[in-house]
Amino acid sequence: MRDLVRGYAAAVLDGAGPDTGRIVSELGSFGAALVHFDALRQVLTDATVAPASRRAVVVDLLGGRDSARTVALLGFTAHYEHASELAPSVAALVGLAEQVAAAPGADLVEPPAGRSAARERLRGYADRVFEELDDAAVDRVGDEMFALSRLLDRTESLRHVLADTDVPYRARAAVLEDLLAGRAAPATLRLARYVLRNGRTRDPVGTFEWLVELAARERGMRLAEVRSAVELDTAELARLATALGRLVARRVTVRVVVDPTVVGGLLVSVGDLVIDGTVRLRLERLRDVLALSS
Fold first, then answer.
1. What is the DSSP letter of 92?
2. Do residues 52 and 95 share a domain?
3. pLDDT digits (tens, 9 = 90+) for 228-242
4. CB 158 within 8 A of CB 192
């Protein structure tokens, strides 16, 4: 399982409470479906199918039937897991959910990991937390993470306690909770606690600064810039916002830029996701093919 998916799964399962047993069952059913239904397996494990399309297939298939947490988790996994590793990843998710179900209310501490893997887990965890927030709440989390990083930077004793893995996680989490109680949003506390659970806390200042960057990037994920040769009417904008929201699992605001060079179709960018459905792109590809054949 990719560390990115593991982190996202941890955030989905945190606080699931009595729903955890249902999630275990639904994940198991989906894993069985991958084994028994060739058409589904072929689509979701085909690396030539766009990741966003694989996610859309899962959301369409499970939406309205499985719990929202399960749909979000499997959709994210279909999008970001290596296509060939989807079935083993789902099996690993079942095992992770079973661990959480067996210890209700307990924070599962992640196994030790290198810097890159730990960052990937944290990025996945943050991605899920941010999904649940509106723009103002994301802004607040970013501001609070920045304030926390500055506090740690100038308070060596506090930084040392939070970074010392010889101190039990529960004790370090209690220090963090006392520090943030009544001063920070629940989402900020969730992210801060996961930093301590994530198996690598040698540089808490740098880690919290990195979370500030993720919050800033998240705000960009919620704005879709659409380039079109013509203006779009209200109904078209609404349909486009809904479709893009399903692809990125966010509430999306669409901003249209009329650009005659597009010729036809749409050029869409949402954060790092770019969808080029323009006539210009098709003409350029045709020109490249003709150049190769001449």
1. H
2. yes
3. 888 888 888 888 888
4. no
